[in-house]
Amino acid sequence: MIPLSTRMRPERLEEFVGQTHFLYEGSLFYRSIKNGNFESAIFFGPSGTGKTTLARIIAREKDSSFVEINASVTGTKELKEILKNASDRFHGLMKETTCLYVDEVHRWNRLQQDSLLRALEEGIICFVGSTTENPWFSINNAILSRVGNIYEFKRLSPEDILTVLKRTLQDPERGFGSLCIEYDDKALRTLAEMSGGDCRVALDALGFIVDNIEEGKGIDSAVVAEAMQKQTTFYDKEEDKYNLLSALQKSIRGSDPDAAVHYLARLIDGGADLMMICRRLLVIASEDIGMAYPSAISIVTACVQAAQMVGFPEAQINLAQAVVLMASCPKSNASKEALGLALSDLHRRGISDVPDHLKDAHYSGAEKLGRGIGYKYPHAYGGYVTQQYLPDDLYAEGVTYYHPTENGSEGAFRKYLEGLKEIDRKNRK
After folding, report:
1. The pLDDT value given to residue 236
2. What's the longest Cα–Cα distance across the chain?
């Protein structure tokens, strides 16, 4: 039996859902497909985000021969045969380019990847490779330089997945429209949110539900919870997720690792989306830790990337490390406050132009305009030199935005900056 996620693959570009950061009506990507001049590309991103589906739509729009292979099961011998057939088609009577889609292309070794080079250079194939790994690390530079176009696929939003689920329940041919299944909107949204941005997971769960639901019964939260094998209490109240995220951040800000881990556990146990937690942790690292422990953002970013790579359930270990680290280290919101003060000034008053000596002087005629004249290069003075950087009016008022604390590493930065201000005072006497 064909899985529902396969049956419901969009067949036309207009049906495709998601990836609106590069695919929307009128975008260069969209127009290149519609105009038939789409060139080779690499798609990378998580599973279930539409990489294979979009590759098939492109081939259909180009009206060219389409060959789809998976690098995990296709070796060099089979690839050479495919490229030979493509060459014969290109140089023969048909003079047709073959659209070659290679799924999991990162699984090929360097030699196998390099087998594509000649065909790419001669235009024999329109190559689309998909990978769940960063192509700049997993694909040869020679391939990257010839492909040029690299598109990152992001996890689908709950709204995107909800659109697909409703379309499936209404489609009488490929979906379940002929069954007239009743469903609770909230339950369907819960299914979308619990799918982790993976449309395949959502559709296959919906197919499992419809195939096994009691006759005459609709889709409700209890059925979704059973199908997903997760608690749905987290989603019973829409504000719960935001309350728990708020409590998590405030516990970290308050340096209580026990409470912070508690709220992290409740988020995970309730089925919170991994990306939602990761985004909040990255914000906390800069908003609440900041310059008191500048390494926090690097460590938290590494933990977040690791969590996204391994996925749940192991991801919870990476998240716990990030939470405990931030709850246990010094805190400062001085950098955030500095930005807020600067933005406030911009919005409430007129501010003079950038000083002429700071303006770009890397073009002919700049000197005649007075650009860059008088600028002192700090490195030529041992790393620091007294010089005006603020616009004239702010400089004349002695405006300051950044007020460092004594907490953690920020205390050392504070002393350093105070030392520079003392140098300035002496030089201006």
Report:
1. 52
2. 89
Whole-number pLDDT of residue 369: 83
* 147 & 28 share domain: yes
* Cis preceding-peptide flag for 313 (omega within 30 of 0): yes
DSSP alpha helix (H) spans, 171-292: 185-193, 199-212, 221-228, 240-253, 257-269, 274-284
Kindly state the tokens that stand for 362: 């890397």
0.90 exceeded by the pTM?
A: no
Same domain, 86 and 58: yes
Q: Is residue 14 part of a domain?
A: no
The pLDDT score that the predictor gives to residue 138 is 86
Q: Which structural domain, as residue segments, surrounds residue 387?
A: 334-428
The reply to whether 297 and 351 lie within a common domain is no
Bridge partner list, 151: 43
In a domain, 349, yes or no: yes
Residues 100, 223 share a domain: no
The position carrying tokens 């003392």 is 422
- pLDDT of 238 reads 55
Alpha carbon distance 199, 203 (integer Å): 6
Q: Which of 230, 251, 274 is the last residue of a domain?
A: 230
Q: CA 290, CA 332: separation in Å to the nearest integer?
A: 6
In a domain, 2, yes or no: no
Residue 345: give its domain's CATH number.
1.10.3710.10
Q: What is the spatial distance between Cα 421 and Cα 404, in angstroms, rounded to a whole number?
A: 14
Q: Is residue 75 part of a domain?
A: yes
Q: Are strands 149-152 and 65-70 parallel, antiparallel or unpaired?
A: unpaired
Asked whether 191 and 202 are in contact (CB, 8 A), the reply is yes
Residue where a domain terminates, one of 275, 309, 328: 328
Do 29 and 143 share a domain, yes or no? yes
Whole-Å CA distances, 164 to 158, 185, 188, 339: 10, 13, 11, 40
CA distance 151 to 135: 10
Q: What is the pLDDT of residues 266-313, one digit of tens each?
A: 988 877 888 889 999 999 999 999 999 999 999 999 999 999 888 888
Bridge pairing between strands 65-70 and 41-44: unpaired
Q: How far is the C-alpha of 155 from the C-alpha of 149, rounded, in Å?
A: 20
The number of residues in the chain equals 429
What total of structural domains would you count in the chain? 4
Please tell me whether residues 267 and 180 are part of one structural domain: no
Query: Which residues pair with residue 219 across a beta bridge?
Result: 183
Average pLDDT over residues 404-425: 93
Structure tokens at 428: 């201006």
